[in-house]
TrEMBL record, chain A:
It is found in: Cell membrane. SUPFAM superfamilies: MetI-like. Signal peptide: none annotated. Belongs to the binding-protein-dependent transport system permease family. CysTW subfamily. The keyword Transmembrane applies. The lineage of its organism: Bacteria, Bacillati, Actinomycetota, Actinomycetes, Micromonosporales. Keywords: Cell membrane, Membrane, Phosphate transport, Transmembrane, Transmembrane helix, Transport. Part of the binding-protein-dependent transport system for phosphate; probably responsible for the translocation of the substrate across the membrane. The chain crosses the membrane at residues 21-41, 74-103, 115-139, 159-183, 243-262, 282-308. PANTHER family: PHOSPHATE TRANSPORT SYSTEM PERMEASE PROTEIN PST (PTHR30425), PHOSPHATE TRANSPORT SYSTEM PERMEASE PROTEIN PSTC (PTHR30425:SF1). This is Phosphate transport system permease protein. InterPro entries: MetI-like (IPR000515), MetI-like_sf (IPR035906), Phosphate_PstC (IPR011864), Phosphate_Transport_Permease (IPR051124). It is a multi-pass membrane protein. Residues 78-304 form the ABC transmembrane type-1 domain.
Automatic annotation (TrEMBL), chain B:
GO terms for cellular component: membrane. Residues 31-270 form the ABC transporter domain. It holds the Pfam family ABC_tran. One of its GO terms (biological process) is phosphate ion transmembrane transport. This is Phosphate import ATP-binding protein PstB. It comes from Rhizocola hellebori. The gene is pstB. It comes from the Bacteria. Keywords: ATP-binding, Nucleotide-binding, Translocase, Transport. The keyword Zinc does not apply. InterPro entries: AAA+_ATPase (IPR003593), ABC_transporter-like_ATP-bd (IPR003439), ABC_transporter-like_CS (IPR017871), P-loop_NTPase (IPR027417), PstB-like (IPR005670). NCBIfam families: 3a0107s01c2 (TIGR00972). The keyword Nucleus does not apply.
Length: 320, 284
């Protein structure tokens, strides 16, 4: 009896391993935070010369970007980033949801696996390849379509401003290629979310005499809202940060215009294009743009989380 | 023995049992099953089932697990169609029309023959939207508020939820959720309501409320209920079908209808030894 009771208090080897594992996990978790903080601190530090002079160089408020006279207004870059990303999301989301619904609700088991592999393969294509394909294949192919849109819709007051004169490289083509690039991630997340919809909910809709589409509207979408927003935000984040493909396709023209067929620029494109030639406040301004992009991404994500949480509370009632 | 079910359907106009719910033997069958078998691929899950479903009566299906009672229930509104490889043999008629005829649309079938499931499964939407959903997909747009209120009243839930129609259906208790599911099913005014063990996830008080509700609903609707609980079948139903699983010569299990009769008869004076064994085994 005494030997048995003594084992209750003894710290054996297992206890020590357990402790070591716990420490390892904590350390791994903290590493992420440290890296994030280090990035934020060093970029803020290096961009400070440009940002602290925001009053003179118009960093946050001006659309004038001319390093030769010390003007670093970043608005055209922010504008281009937002426009191309929004085009990408607007085009990619319906397509991705369609693919995911096809895979979860319609596709026979046999072909499901190969389609998933194909889409994942799309995610493995290097972005420079997408960029070159965009320049040599997509842009020439789309130009007649853009011209037709311009001719057809150009006369209508508000729409006409969006579909203006057509340039060879423009916001639209960049957004289109970005859309193709973010389809895999949005598809894979929405597919997983759709897979988690309880069968009992689908059965409930079927039993009320729902058609397949009515079943999807009534049972699949309400359950998937949070995951859908999450997937869209991940896609948006990826689109906003994409560098090479956009740099190759957007036309590198520093301007703010409603015309989607006009050339523009974006934050990552500017950084990759100008960083080599920059120095002093110029470099500092480019790093500052990076900080702005980082902050915008964080805000977008926080916003998405808030939307998801609100929706979940509304859907699930007090239990959430 | 295999002919028992056929004999029983002929012997329906019999002496009423000692139960509180007297069968109305004159009620005409809304549905009729003739030698219905259900297959999953080549496996015959249930063999040759023949029984009527009578109008504005409650028909209970009882029996041990794996006897095919739920399988038969789900073939009555073509929910089995959703399982790949499932098909039926024999014939099921609904108001005399063959339910599985090639030109019959399963979606229209399910709009006429509603279903309530074992686990309460309200949609993750508001209470109001849960009920309105069925109406909307049936193309009903006018007087939505009145229709929702009526369905919730008929589902014996209105007084508990009238002040929180906008809150989530999932925030209700289990018993309330199940009554919401019943309200959702009856909102579209089906002819028949199928209930697949509707109380098995509920406590006795919630179960009692659902059983009371079933009596109310039987004034208007025809109900078929699958239940594990024999007392429940005895309490609520007018007719009872007893199923069991049998092993054939090839050692394959098939579900089978053993006996169909007035509930009173089944529970006091069953014809088949297997029915008696099952009932007394549980009660004794």
């Amino acid at each position: 009896m005494t030997t048995q009771s003594s084992t209750l208090t003894q710290k054996d080897r297992g206890r020590i391993t357990d402790r070591a594992f716990w420490l390892l996990c904590i350390a791994a978790g903290i590493t992420v935070l440290v890296i994030l903080a280090a990035i934020l601190v060093s970029t803020l530090q290096q961009s400070w010369p440009a940002m602290s002079k925001a009053g003179e160089n118009g960093f946050f408020t001006s659309k004038l970007w001319d390093p030769n006279i010390g003007k670093f207004g970043i608005l055209p870059f922010v504008f281009g980033t937002l426009v191309t990303s929004l085009i990408a999301v607007a085009l990619a989301v319906p397509v991705s949801i369609g693919i995911a619904l096809f895979l979860t609700e319609l596709a026979p088991r046999r072909i499901k696996g190969s389609i998933v592999t194909l889409i994942d393969l799309l995610a493995a294509v290097p972005s420079v390849v997408f960029g070159l394909w965009g320049i040599y294949v997509l842009a020439p192919a789309m130009t007649p379509v853009y011209k037709w849109l311009h001719d057809t819709l150009g006369g209508i007051p508000v729409l006409g401003a969006l579909f203006g004169e057509v340039s060879a490289l423009n916001f639209m083509t960049a957004g289109l290629v970005l859309a193709i690039m973010i389809v895999p991630i949005i598809t894979s997340i929405t597919r997983e979310v759709f897979d988690t919809v309880p069968d009992s909910d689908k059965q409930a809709a079927w039993a009320l005499g729902a058609t397949r589409w009515e079943m999807i509207k009534g049972a699949v979408f309400p359950h998937s809202f949070g995951g859908l927003v999450g997937g869209v935000m991940l896609g948006l984040g990826r689109a906003m940060g994409e560098t090479i493909a956009v740099a190759l396709l957007i036309g590198n023209s520093i301007q703010i215009t409603a015309n989607l067929f006009a050339p523009g620029t974006s934050i990552p494109a500017a950084i990759v294009n100008y960083f080599g030639e920059a120095g002093g406040d110029y470099t500092s301004a480019l790093i500052g743009m990076g900080v702005v992009l980082f902050v915008v991404t964080v805000i977008v994500n926080l916003l998405a989380q808030a939307i998801v949480r609100r929706a979940e509370i509304r859907m699930r009632g007090a239990k959430a | 023995m295999t002919q028992a079910s056929f004999d029983m359907t002929n012997a329906l106009s019999s002496v009423p049992g000692a139960m509180s719910t007297m069968p109305t033997s004159s009620a005409k069958p809304v549905m009729q099953l003739e030698g219905v078998s259900v297959f999953y691929g080549s496996y015959e899950a249930v063999r040759g089932t023949t029984m009527p479903v009578r109008e504005q009566q409650i028909t209970a299906m009882i029996g041990p697990s794996g006897c095919g009672k739920s399988t038969i229930l789900r073939s009555l509104n073509r929910m089995n169609d959703l399982i790949p490889g499932a098909r039926i043999g024999g014939k099921i008629t609904f108001h005399g029309q063959d339910l599985y005829a090639p030109d019959v649309d399963p979606i229209q079938v399910r709009r006429r023959i509603g279903m309530v499931f074992q686990k309460p499964n309200p949609f993750p939407k508001s209470i109001y939207e849960n009920v309105a959903y069925g109406l909307r997909i049936n193309g009903i747009k006018d007087n939505m508020d009145d229709r929702v209120e009526k369905a919730l009243r008929d589902g014996a839930l209105w007084d508990e939820v009238k002040d929180k129609l906008k809150s989530s259906g999932l925030a209700l208790s289990g018993g309330q959720q199940q009554r919401l599911c019943i309200a959702r099913a009856i909102a579209v005014q089906p002819d028949v309501i199928l209930m697949d063990e509707p109380c098995s996830a509920l406590d006795p008080i919630a179960t009692g409320k659902i059983e009371d509700l079933m009596h109310e609903l039987a004034r208007t609707y025809t109900i078929v209920i699958v239940t594990h609980n024999m007392q429940q079948a005895a309490r609520v139903s007018h007719y009872t079908a007893f199923f069991t699983a049998e092993v054939d010569e090839q050692q394959v299990r098939h579900g089978r209808l053993i006996e169909f009769n007035d509930t009173g008869r089944i529970f006091t004076n069953p014809t088949d030894k297997r029915t008696e064994d099952y009932i007394t085994g549980r009660f004794g």
